[in-house]
Amino acid sequence: MWIGSPDCSLVGGPQSRALRQAQASEGQETDRPEPPWLQTNFTLRADPTSGVVYSRNRDRGSYASGVAALAYQGLYRAHAMVWCPKVPAGRKRRLNVELREAIRRANQILVEERSSPTVRYSLKLKELKPNDSLGAALSMLATINEPQMLQIIRARRPREIVEDPNKWAFESVNYGLLCALLSRLPADSCPAFLAAVLGRLVTPPGSEKSKKDIQPKWNGLVSEFPLVAEFCVRNGAKDVFLRTLGEANLTPGHAVLLRHIEDMIALNFTVFTERDYDLLTGATTALGNAARIQLKACRDIGAVVGDNAALYAEIITATDAIKEECRKARYLYVKGELQEGLNLEVNQDKAVVESFLKGQGFSDELTESLNRADQLYHGASTKFEFKSAMGHLRSFMERLHSEELVRLGASGANSIGWGDGVELLHRQAVLTKAEKGYAIALFTLLSDEGVHPIIAEKEYARLARNVVVEYALLFLSKLQKLGHAPASKGGNL
To answer: Count of alpha carbons within 13 Å of 450, Cβ hemisphere only?
Structure first.
């Protein structure tokens, strides 16, 4: 069962009774109210090897696994509880040997990542052929210029977002190894594995000094946190990652992580959705506010310099930059969606088609059919609606040809099949041989991808809409040049 699936629910940031008891014994504040479902008949157990917390509500007879913030020290805080209500009562969910081994190996990978980070973004060279001498030269040039390009992007805070998400590609050897471990696990073990990896964000130390010239880095420190972020974001645990990030206690590792998140948005902004950017804005706002409180406390005691003050200042700067990047990324989503719908050239051609249809005496139903297809395409939210849009486009093409056959005086024009009708238009010199082949291929595409299947993909609907408009413009322009007279009556759709 994957995190975020209908079979499980997420609770962001519940604080366990074990942590409360530990805090109370040390004289710490424990005034945060417990969630109602956590107040009674609730027990908590932790696996010190994996850092995964197991909990059980005796009334519901269900088990849950979550992130253990300080499992190795005996302090447990479930930042991202995954409640599995379908587990039968009286059955304890245990980590099996396979999952334990996967988590052990993941910890080895993450320790190595902290020592020698592998996360990076590199330029993607499209259609580059290894045996192409020009391609080899371009590859070498990109390799030489890539560090300078990244340096220019990182010099600005907030970073300027690259609008083409395919220009830069994320790469990491250790990311591939974590994905390999995840792929070997059964589906019901994946949430626990992701939770264990995510637990690194709240488990010290999370960073170490490095003299290597690598990024991201802050104050000479590198961290495995960027890899944790990429792994969780790209493997179905974005919500839990963002909630955990917003509640994290500030450490130098988080300063490194925030710099990497700046890179993620700037170089590959589509890795997050619009909704994700709302959550990320909330998480970084919480971190920034916490850093401001801590920085003020440092100043109140006169500690305006030093590692702590520098850390808090860095986190404030980074979170402010990320919030602005989130705003710009949301705008780019809106821009992309509207520009896709406002393809100016195609829309202008569609207006010309409508003018031709009216001026050449075609039926109003033709224009209505084309407009209905356009409305369905732009308003579609499901593949069934894209299929409906393509169905209207197919009907538009059929009706356009049949009405022209009526104008030509063809016998039984409304009952002539598509192929026979196209052949007749070719014999009447309305379509050339190449245009006849093109029309048949387009109609076949509309049928095979939009009408015969149960659903249609958005890419095919977009292609069909644009190409049908351009074909209609070509067809009607030829009719105008041929001087075909308007018909007195059209056929039936």
So the answer is: 27
